[in-house]
Design a protein that fits this description.
Blueprint: E1 10-13, H1 19-30, E2 34-39, H2 42-54, E3 62-66, H3 72-85, E4 91-94, H4 113-128, H5 130-136, E5 139-144, H6 167-181, E6 192-198, H7 207-210, H8 217-226, E7 239-241, E8 244-245, H9 255-269
Parallel strand pairs: 1-2, 1-4, 2-3, 4-5, 5-6, 6-7
Antiparallel strand pairs: 7-8
Helix pairs in contact: 1-8, 3-4, 4-6, 4-9
Length: about 270
């Protein structure tokens, strides 16, 4: 593969300070892309870029961006910065994720923290970045989800699970929501294609939730980057597992549920949108 296959393309990778996100940024920059390296804080973004340079990335291909996805206003500011400086955005990799904590924890926006960081932030970014993504002509959104989404259910009446909380159920719901919302992120005629994937069980900060031995994060990142390549054909709304298209949870393909989720997500991001 040419190391310039993504030259002249710009990619935003969220949660790029460690794990699969950092490895994805490393691989994309190695393929010639300009990579917008997102982290929770400026210090974390600068540290991630420093490690990328030490790993062989070119400084002029890397841009630090900081936003705490536990605060939707910061997600909106991040999107505004991208829109201002990058009128065309070729790739959006929604990778940022957190484990749901032991106890139900709400953000200042009033949302269960894993639902907000893992799904609502991605939903908001896809909306606010629609213009530069469409302007790119053949942009892709790649949502890093999990096979755990198949075990989940949407708690429509109590999406923050305040009444009956389980950290595994909350996390799995956030991944189901991200997978279910994928097709809606790329409406017909937008020139965008959106897909989701299970990158495999990798040795990242999320591994304790699964309680098993994980593969190197670079393996998960390779699966992500494959879906970013222009010569790899993908279907809008499709879900990939181990590099191949795979079935999602049934509810994720139900048009009524997709529309219900889009309406709920718009309500939950509220004024930040």
């Amino acid at each position: 593969m040419s190391d310039a296959v993504l030259s002249a393309r710009t990619a935003l990778v969220t949660g790029a300070s460690s794990g699969i996100g950092w490895e994805t940024a490393r691989l994309l920059s190695g393929l010639g892309a300009t990579v917008l390296v997102h982290a929770r804080t400026t210090a974390e973004a600068e540290d991630a870029v420093g490690r990328l340079i030490a790993a062989g990335a070119r400084r002029d291909q890397l841009v630090e961006l900081a936003a705490d996805f536990g605060k939707l206003a910061e997600v909106a500011v991040l999107a505004g910065t991208v829109v201002k400086h990058y009128p065309a955005l070729d790739l959006l990799v929604n990778n940022a994720a957190v484990m749901a904590p032991e106890r139900c924890t709400l953000t200042d926006d009033g949302n269960e923290v894993s639902l907000q960081v893992n799904f609502l932030a991605a939903h908001l970014l896809a909306k606010l970045l629609r213009a530069p993504l469409s302007a790119a002509g053949d942009a892709r959104i790649v949502n890093v989800s999990s096979s755990l989404h198949r075990t989940a259910s949407m708690n429509w009446s109590d999406p923050h699970r305040v009444k009956k909380y389980s950290r595994v159920a909350a996390y799995a719901q956030s991944q189901l929501a991200l997978t279910m919302a994928t097709a809606e992120m790329a409406p017909a005629g937008s020139g965008i294609t959106a897909v989701s994937l299970n990158p495999g069980l990798c040795d990242t900060a999320l591994l304790p939730l699964y309680g098993r031995v994980g593969a190197p994060a670079s393996e998960g990142a390779a699966a992500v980057v494959r879906l970013c390549l222009p010569d790899v054909e993908v279907a809008n709304g499709a879900y990939y597992d181990g590099g191949v298209a795979a079935p999602t949870a049934q509810v994720a393909q139900e048009e009524r549920s997709q529309k219900r989720l889009a309406k709920l997500a718009d309500q939950l991001v509220g004024r930040a949108a």
